[in-house]
Amino acid sequence: MDINADGNTDLLVAGYGGFADIYYGKADGTFAEAKPLLNEDGVKVNLGSYWCYDQNIWTTFAREKIKKGGISHAEIALQEKIEQQSTHFTLLTVVDWDNDGDYDLILNSQPKVAKKDSDQKPKVCLNIGDKKNPKFSRKVFEIKEISRVHYAEAIGDWDGDGLFDIISGSKGYHVQFYKNIGKLGKPKFAEPVILFKNEDFINGAHGGEVWIMQPSICDYNNDGKLDLLIGTNTNNNIPAKLTKEQKAERTELEKVLKETIDGITKYNNAYYKKHGQPKTNEAYKKMTETLNKNADFKALVEKQKEVYTKLWPLKDKMEGGGYVWVSLRK
Fold this sequence. Notes:
By secondary structure, this protein is an alpha+beta fold. Helices cover 24% and strands 26% of the residues. It starts with 10 loop residues before the first strand and ends with a strand.
């Protein structure tokens, strides 16, 4: 992709931190140092929350604004409610959405609470500059025809009609083909056609269904036909093989652990009520130091460690794995 039309290939990188960087290509094939991808206001392109390394928390630009004061408690409460439904990280794909000769952005993300029937939709961020001087709009809009999307979309003319189509991956759902039934500059997408269901991918090394599917379009075998590369991963529950006595021990330990955690939670909530919930590493450190001065609280923390050490060998385990799959076009 040559995002600034200077004849050199550029690299856009986005991910878990919430922002995107651009590495402009040089004539010798190397790349310049990363620069943040900015919108027309000079603000980093972002969808939902981002990871604040100074405070080690997920946050939004709105919360940063709150910290500067001048916002009512009602507005703060509303913002906190919004953030509970907010998204984590930002991923992007580029395409000339409006057929004006420059690259626009398709942004996607994952809800904090990922659900199988989530209607998290990708967003379009138009380039309001030109092909040599890209400038991305502060406003984004949804691709309304697409739902149940997770991670990035693959863009390409899948059916060879001259219009770009979308193949979407998902989390716990399907790989789907959205045919573009609009026209150049005004994309519109038909109802999806399922190309692969998540149960079509059986992870032979670990067993179970695949949880995440992320497609990419390419001509894998150079036969002039577009193929699919699909990255997958899964986390499978591996039940612990326990004797009758061990099962009884696990049940008792889980009961004690819950009682211990409930006790710790009461101390934490009392601290929050008096001092507010800590938002920074320094505030968490102060809270820990304060609570540890209480012998009963400290005993609960030590009890939690002791119980969990005994419980861990008796618990079910999670085992992850994944592959890259190739689907060749017939």
